[in-house]
Amino acid sequence: MVPSINGETLLYALGVAFALGTLAFFARDVVFDLSITVTALLLFVAFAAFLVVGVAIDHDNLGSVAFAISGLSYMVGLGYVLSRYELSETGTFGLLAASTILFVGLGYGLQEGRLTLDRSTARRALLGLAVVGMVFVGADSVGEMTSSVDLNDEVVLNGTMAPPDEPIVAGEQRIGTVTIRNPTLFTRTAELPSLESCLVGADIDRPLRFDLDYDEPPSYQMADRLNRNEERTTDIRLRFDLPADAAATGQPIPIERAESCAVTRLEPTLLVVESADR
Predict the structure, then answer these.
(1) From CA 58, how far away is CA 61, in angstroms rounded?
(2) Burial bucket for residue 102 (CB in 10 Å: 0-12, 13-18, 19+)
(3) Residues 6+ apart with CB under 8 A from 84
(4) Quick one: which of 8, 86, 124, 241 has the most CB atoms within 10 Å?
């Protein structure tokens, strides 16, 4: 026998499901340019706000929905904190244990009727939470991440030969550094600028490979965040394929910053272009 689900329950369930999607999307840091600190704070503010609504509301079903969204906000917020901050195993265990105690305590308080709020107190609590959220969002908008690129004056395109039937020189060279800084009040995601390169002024018919990348350790070794007033410097590396008989192969060529690759030079020149997105 298939259990029947009335329309009210179905709509409430869909609302909770969409709330989970909204929270998860918000935690991905793709909608608003918020710091890691403020994103986590707002998720826990949402937890507290929906908890207040659930306690204060008289309607059983709506109260359950509010509690469900409150719990989801907490779970997403906790997962966000654990994924963004390098907590020790002890710290992770402590957070999970504290969360267990918190929710068991909340459930016990509701069951015994000790956790109650009248409408007036609930409104003041929600107003206070809204003010806290707005204050932190306002403070978060002060300042922004900065980056600076320091390029070498020139590079020698030396590499290793490919098989004789394809006389190509492939290599990798360090051509400079990029430094990112966080002068803002809170911890933010460390985003390196997107750089592209091209070789101009070289009479080469075949397509070339000129790729720029950053000399970063694997993500599990380095957190993708910068704390307040912290900076990080990373090497810029050029990976290339060149015909072995090209004039630029094995010769020092200058490196220049440019707005685009649509420029000409009389001599082989490596151009570095910063694009809008990484």
Answers:
(1) 9
(2) exposed
(3) 36, 40, 187, 223, 225
(4) 241
Domain coordinates of the chain in residue numbers?
7-140, 146-274
Which amino acid is it at 162?
A: A
Neighbours of 113 (CB within 10 A): 7
Q: Which of 31-45, 111-125, 162-176, 256-270 has the lowest mean pLDDT?
A: 162-176
How many degrees, rounded to 5, is the angle at CA 48 between CA 44 and CA 53?
Answer: 145
Share of the chain above pLDDT 90, in %: 29
Burial classification of residue 80, based on how many CB atoms lie within 10 Å of its CB (0-12 exposed, 13-18 middle, 19 or more buried): buried
pLDDT, tens digit, 9 for 90 and up, residues 127-143: 999 999 999 999 998 88
The pTM of this model reads 0.78
Tokens, residue 180: 């990112």
Q: Are 160 and 167 in contact (CB under 8 A)?
A: no
